[in-house]
Amino acid sequence: VNHLIGIKNITKRDIELIFETADQFKEVINRPIKKVPSLRDVTIANIFFENSTRTKLSFELAQKRLSADVISFSAAQSSVKKGETLIDTVNNILAMKVDMVVMRHSSPGAAHFLSQNVSASILNAGDGAHEHPTQALLDSFTIREKLGDVGGKKVVIVGDILHSRVALSNIFALQMQGAEVKVCGPKTLIPKYIESLGVTVEPNLRKALEWCDVANMLRVQNERLDVSYFPTTREYTQQYGVTKELLQSLNKEVVIMHPGPINRGVEITSDVADSGQSVILNQVENGVAVRMAVIYLLASKIKN
Ligand code: CP
């Protein structure tokens, strides 16, 4: 397969290979000369139909560290605004001899649709509430780095599960590697199908934190919410916000993760986000090495 559409489409062995490759790239990017010449003959287009800070910059940096030629496209400043379709847009970019497309889009299934309709390698950088595979890979890579292994670990994903591609990709990746997964959040933000994925729902945040090794805190995605949803931000923070006092009362050290962007003071207080228990910036750092690995492995299939 020349695409990475979702964690659902890959295997445990694929994840292991990505991590072994990322280990080597992490070593490279910590050297004074942070680049390798591996992809000098590969051209990559990053096309983003939704806003991004971490994913877009991390992909660009990963591509540059691999010596690929890179072009970046933001839908907001493009001819999409004049009515050009997704396929026309991508085919015009591909006519410029592009080998790989990294795409973020608000529609679930957009990356799969593209993979079926254009001739380039497609890498999903987030499609609506469906999947965000490289985020889940960098999250697992960070757990492995911090705790030695993902297998056997207990991970709770807290917050807006309903609108979260990060949650879904993490559930697939964690379970594939032998971790146990619970979700915690208000009923209105937990999808009904979640238990059919082998995930337990724990509505009580304290109980969830007492149970887990790792808590992955998600942002409430106000931009995807119906205005009539419950609870309000204040109620949400009271019931599901992680504070230093709560963590200190647990008598154990839970690893705190967050994919970003953080709503400081809503799902997590600043003293937790910036504490030694938080691996939030380690996740961002690892994103570059993990994305280098994914791009490198996909590109080696293009070239063969
Ligand atoms: N984690 C993540 O996807 O962040 P961005 O939306 O800033 O890319």
Describe the overall structure:
One of its GO terms (molecular function) is aspartate carbamoyltransferase activity. The protein has 304 residues and is of the alpha/beta class. It has two domains: 7-131 and 287-303, 3-Layer(aba) Sandwich (Rossmann fold), CATH 3.40.50.1370; 133-283, Rossmann fold, CATH 3.40.50. Helix content is 40%, strand content 14%. It contains eleven helices and nine strands. Helix 2 packs across helix 11 (280-303). The longest helix is centred in the C-terminal third of the chain and has 24 residues, at 280-303. It is globular. The chain starts with 11 loop residues before the first helix and ends with a helix. The relative contact order is 0.16. The mean pLDDT is 95. Phosphoric acid mono(formamide)ester (CP) binds next to helix 2. The site of phosphoric acid mono(formamide)ester has 9 residues, from helix 2.
